[in-house]
## 1
Amino acid sequence: MLVLTRKPGEKIMIGDDIVITFLESRGTDGIRIGIDAPRHLEIKREEIFGAVADANLEATQASADDVLRGLVGRGPDAPSGTPSDPSASTP
């Protein structure tokens, strides 16, 4: 890990196209930085990245029963004149 000390307005370059600018210190509330990077790069706070990864892991571990329960009532509408419940009898 590279550790640097910066003053407001000073910048850090990462490669040729990423610039991190130190904007201000807010004491115990942290610091403000600005990041200038190409649009195709995703920039996420670590806690957001972790939350998304956790949600994706949870989704992949859902049981088949959970998935089927989530699908109940989401099927296509039955054609008119046809009962939507296959066990229903027709008069």
Note: The radius of gyration is 26 Å.
## 2
Amino acid sequence: MADHHDHDSHGDYVRGEMDIHQHRGTYGLFAALTKWGSLNLAVFLTFVIILTCTKLGLIAAGVCAVVVGVAGWFLLKKKADPAH
């Protein structure tokens, strides 16, 4: 069978010499959106589940959601990088 791939284009890539700043930025944005989106989902689900599945009421559901949100924010916020 004939190989239809262009083998000459593979010679352009040199490991470690490509500019990856845009890739790092995109990955950083994806990671941040995933992290904070997950926290928002956890807060929302906590509120809705406590409100609808228990007899604690609206105030208790709100307090529990705020506690989850504050705890999550402290756990997920960016840590300071140690100086090298």
Note: The chain has a mean pLDDT of 86.
## 3
Amino acid sequence: MEYRRVARSGQVPDGLVRRFFVDEVEVAVARWDGRVHAMSNYCTHLDCLLSSGRATEEGLLCSCHGSVFDYESGEPILPPATQPIRVYPVREENGEIFVLLPGDAKEQDGPRRRRQAAQG
């Protein structure tokens, strides 16, 4: 596995979340208080796009039903989500943002309905 470039640093201003693709994997990249965070783009509650939410002091806020996820662990801090989202190692250097995706990200980190269709 290797870190993959996903964006220029300026594409993710403080307090915002953006969606990027690494091959077929959707990644939500947020910046809060100058630090960059990367995670799966799908809320574990109802598959809403986390990139439609906001970066907050508490964590990543899903715009659909108000779940908040911890930036570091992916654990839900506020319901209705009860399952964590997957977080990815991220680094920023020379004005670029890089994310390290696990080998199973394509199968495990998309919307639940896509995973269920693939299994069934």
Note: Confidence is low (pLDDT under 50) at residues 115-120.
